[in-house]
Amino acid sequence: MVDSPTRLVERMVGQRVTLRLKDGRRLAGKLEGIDDYMNLVLSEVDETTAEQSRHLGTVILRGSNLVTLHDSQGTPRPVGVTASGAAARDPNRTRPKGEPLAVLRLLAQLG
After folding, report:
1. Rounded distance, CA 48 to CA 68, Å?
2. Which of 60, 73, 90, 97, CA to CA, is 20 to 30 A from 54?
3. Structural domains of the chain, with CATH
4. d(Cα 78, Cα 94) in Å, to the nearest integer?
5. Alpha-carbon distance 25 to 3, whole Å?
6. What is d(CA 101, CA 35) in angstroms, rounded to the nearest whole number?
């Protein structure tokens, strides 16, 4: 069975990742969590644009802004999002259903 994009990204939790956003910015940081809609929580984030680089700290990123996601070795991971904006669902997932605030709970735990 082929893993869903969400499941692939879940395997990267705890690792350093690099993201490219729709507006061209690049973010690099530690992936702390992901929800069913591909929203991400990252810590220790550095942002790079054409003009500058800056440290952002902890960031919540809406999944619909994500273009590519790379692990620390630069390996790209697919970021498939359905037309409704929800990431493809895996019926065998271990995460409980009905957790739209999971990312916010994780952020609260990070303090």
Report:
1. 15
2. 73
3. 5-110 (2.30.30.100)
4. 20
5. 28
6. 8
